[in-house]
Amino acid sequence: MLAALDRTIASLEADLAAEQSAIDAAVAARQIGAGYWQRRHDLVRRLRIVRALREAVAEAVQ
User: Fold this and answer.
1) Start-end of H helices in the chain
2) What is the pLDDT of residues 14-54, one digit of tens each?
């Protein structure tokens, strides 16, 4: 289970890095619009949840 959570965390971190890169490019080009940050906020929220779940599972199996 920990391995699956680690894979999910790695995937979310990669998605978040890609999204942040896209946001940075849009800001630099002044092409960012309303709602553009929504996906990033969703990724951050999901990553926080999965990290907390992983920590709880790791504590439970010790």
Assistant:
1) 2-28, 38-61
2) 999 999 999 999 989 988 877 778 999 999 999 999 999 99
Residue 31: C-alpha distances to residues 1, 21, 38 (Å):
41, 13, 15
Q: Quote the pTM value.
A: 0.84
pLDDT of the residue at 5:
96
How buried is 55 (Cβ within 10 angstroms: 0-12 exposed, 13-18 middle, 19+ buried)? Answer: exposed
Indicate the length of the chain as a whole number: 62
Token pair belonging to 2: 């920990």
- DSSP assigned state of 36: T
